[in-house]
Amino acid sequence: MKLWGGRFEKSTDALVEDFHSSISFDQRLYKQDIQGSIAHARMLGEIGVLTPAEAQQIIEGLKGILTDIREGKIQFEIGAEDIHMNVEKLLTERVGTVGKKVHTGRSRNDQVALDLRLFLREEIDHTQELLITLLRTVLNLAKEHQETYMPGYTHLQKAQPISFAHHMMAYAQMFLRDLGRLKDTRKRLNVSPLGSGALAGTTFPLEREMVAQELGFDGITWNSLDGVSDRDFALEFLSAASILMMHLSRLCEELVLWSTGEFQFVIMDDGYSTGSSIMPQKKNPDVAELVRGKTGRVYGDLIALLTVMKGLPLAYNKDMQEDKEQVFDAVDTIQKSLLVVEPMLRTMKVNKKAMAEGAKGGFTNATDLADYLAKKNVPFREAHEIVGKLVLYCSKRGCGLEDLTLKEFQEHSDVFAEDLFESIGIEYCVRQRHIPGGPSPESVAQAILWTEHILEQF
Ligand code: ARG
What we know:
It is a single chain. Helices cover about 60% and strands about 5% of the residues. By secondary structure, it is mainly α. It folds into 3 domains: about 5-105, Fumarase C, Chain B, domain 1; about 110-205 and about 220-355, Fumarase/aspartase (Central domain) (Fumarase C, Chain A, domain 2, Up-down Bundle), CATH 1.20.200; about 360-455, Fumarase/aspartase (C-terminal domain) (Ribonucleotide Reductase Protein R1, domain 1), CATH 1.10.40.30. Strand 1 and strand 2 (about 155-165) form a beta hairpin. It is elongated, with a radius of gyration of 30 Å. The protein binds arginine (ARG). Arginine binds near residues 108 and 316. Arginine binds near residues 22, 108, 109, 320 and 321.
């Protein structure tokens, strides 16, 4: 017998039973569902819709169900559709008719909106913890490598020398913004929809604030239609998760590239690499690749839910049951990814020598040579032209700028003097970029301090 069976003459088709049931996945919300029902029942008792004894019976019954689910003693029923009706059915089986009163002034529509908000709030907190751990590892790498020089790239062509610390600090900024996005999502998410009913509130004088407070919300939703039909909070989470995955994916892409024989900038720890079933010599950065690949899943989750929501008339529609698997999948994917990227990064070896070697080639000091001329009053565009010619001259001879004689420099411009050689040394090039946000060791140290300061707010 269905909890809603009164107006039906026939039972649900067996195919439909299976098709529309969500218990196989929404059982993951059991804790939040029971938490919500306990707060609702307690409030019904306070306002006199239930007697204190009835409220107490319901609360005790719900607590017992919570323990039994935790201990794996409960077999959920597909026939009871979802977690909400499974719990209600169990309650009535345990405490009798009074259990049938728990749903007074409530609908599954506001119930499920509540459960998902409670669930996401917890998962956002946990995700933030994982992200902070990763960010601290990134900061530690930056602290260690302020004088580890490497080439910076644009178009994946060598551009200007930087330090490995500076490169890591770029990711620190990304992760800091990810933390901000999660915090922001949590703030908007943290209001209680309970009391919205099916769509039009309820005739019972529910104390919405009381329930909201008990459940740790900052307030309540202010439109009952929106209360049950809004999934912005899930979409905001999925957006933040997608951007976070994009950052992880870019980092992983660089690790894949850097661990190639051609680069050899890093050596991944054996624990985070795998071999080949045929090629005995192989050591592949599979973990980094898989994180890059899993980014697609999270984007998929976001696009799926955006698409589910886009054509829905107000208020609740069954389509919205499709929100949960996307949210669960994204939560699992970002948490597992964060969990594995942190130690992968922490245990990898940084090949300072290969990085420093790489920083030297490819005329990474050409801008600095142009700057040298510009500082001696040559208009920058002319300086650019002169250095361009010098680069061409070197390319034809297969050497670098630092390999030329003063005479060869002076054949291109008489502004050049002996001090030019200092200005094109790789370390000097980096040190001179001591602008805030720049790659010089002192600028990076400043950025680390600033980042640590912002991190204290989380
Ligand atoms: N299982 C449903 C969901 O996840 C719960 C709400 C169902 N409400 C309804 N009126 N059918 O969205």
